[in-house]
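Problem 12. The chain below contains 164 residues. Write out its predicted structure in token notation.
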Amino acid sequence: MQEAVATAAHPYHYVDSGLSNVYLVGIKYWTCGQCKAQAAEIPAVEQLMDVIAECIVMKPGLLEGQEVRFLRKKVGKKSADFAALLDYGPEHYSKLENDQLPLTEGADKQIRLTFGILCGNRALREKIAKKAEAWLKSIHGKNKEKIRVEKVSDHRWSAMARAA
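Solution.
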């Protein structure tokens, strides 16, 4: 096993988040020389998930199905229960999470606002409230980008600045 530290130039692709676009910086990870499998030391996982959720909620552009699923799971809701909160049938909601139906701007905003209310993160709610108008206007069209999160200390993560 070869040990490495993830850097901004070579971040660690964190697929265990359930998202295909999350990359971590500042962590130790190991790569098997034979099969190339990787394992990482991920401290403060719950705080990391909070930072990822904030990156998702505050991103410009429409959410993807995997991001909708991540937010739902983050607030601890079953699919059918979250669908009911949004006034969707379970089948319709499942198709949104699995990218089988396009997410409308209205549904996207409703999902983000519902998450913001249910997440219990007062700082995120305040951030949404302060930037509500500009933030809501930014939610349109597709905008796939990497979520880059940096380990600041053994117990703290921070979102890295978005590329300009």
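Discussion. The longest helix spans residues 45-58. Students who got a different answer should revisit the alignment rule from Section 12.3.
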